Amino acid sequence: MLLSLGRRGSGDIWNEGELRWKEMIQDHLDKIEERLKQSEAVKESDKAELLTLLTTLRTEIADLSQTHYEQAESITGFAELSAREATRSEKNPALLNLSIEGLASSVQGFETSHPRLLEIINTFCTMLSNLGI
Fold it and tell me: What does pTM read for this prediction?
């Protein structure tokens, strides 16, 4: 699923830097999806729930990236890192905890403007943390 790369509210075409950020965001989300689908360390029921969350996350990140594309890239970068650590066959609890802390921190400040994003990330963090047990 691609992020919308339409025009900004002012009618200006996305500049090259913004397009690069959007491509990076899309790449992170695609890598998370692929890692979850291919992971043998994650139960099918957990995969399904995480992939559903990821679909919703894509929508929320697309919305956020319209005005805060650097923050959206940070969030998806930490989400990718967290997913990688949670789905490793040999888990490192310290790295998993650090990546999840980074992900949780990356959405701070969006409680009011993007409450659904915060909710999704909190659920995603909890699920990934539980995979590391």
Answer: 0.83
